[in-house]
């Protein structure tokens, strides 16, 4: 008689449904609320991986290139936002000076 192996693991591992039923009601509610969001994130992840795999470069290299592009884009957006805020502050400052005169 053999004890262990893949059959034992399969037998003792709970299904997702069994795990979900052991959650307390609050966790079940949160899990159901976030399920769609997590599924969309996973679908986006898989879609991006498929796009990256079409390149002749390794997937991680393409991933790093896109991350770098996103970082640069984020930095540019932040710089633009700061410039706009500074321009608005300067306009308010000039308006206050003109109202004092």
| Fraction in helix | over 70%
The count of strands amounts to: 0
Which range does the strand content fall in? under 5%
Treating each run of at least 4 consecutive H or I residues as one helix, how many helices? 4
What is the global morphology?
Answer: elongated
Largest sheet entry: none
- SSE string: HHHH
Structural class: mainly alpha
Q: Any low-confidence stretches, pLDDT <50, length ≥5?
A: none
Tell me what you see in this structure.
With 101 residues, this protein is an all-alpha fold. Helix content is 84%, strand content 0%. The chain is built from 4 helices and no strands. It is elongated and about 95 Å long. It starts with 5 loop residues before the first helix and ends with a helix. 0% of the residues are buried. The mean pLDDT is 89.
Can you summarize this structure?
The protein is mainly alpha-helical and 101 residues long. It has helices spanning 6-12, 16-22, 25-53, 59-100.
């Amino acid at each position: 008689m053999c004890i262990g192996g893949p059959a034992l693991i399969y037998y003792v591992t709970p299904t997702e449904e069994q795990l979900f039923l052991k959650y307390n009601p609050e966790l079940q509610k949160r899990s159901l609320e976030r399920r769609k969001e997590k599924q969309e994130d996973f679908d986006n992840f898989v879609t991006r991986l498929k796009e990256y795999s079409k390149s002749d470069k390794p997937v991680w290299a393409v991933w790093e290139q896109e991350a770098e592009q996103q970082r640069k884009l984020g930095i540019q957006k932040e710089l633009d936002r700061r410039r706009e805020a500074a321009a608005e502050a300067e306009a308010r400052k000039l308006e206050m000076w003109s109202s004092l005169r």
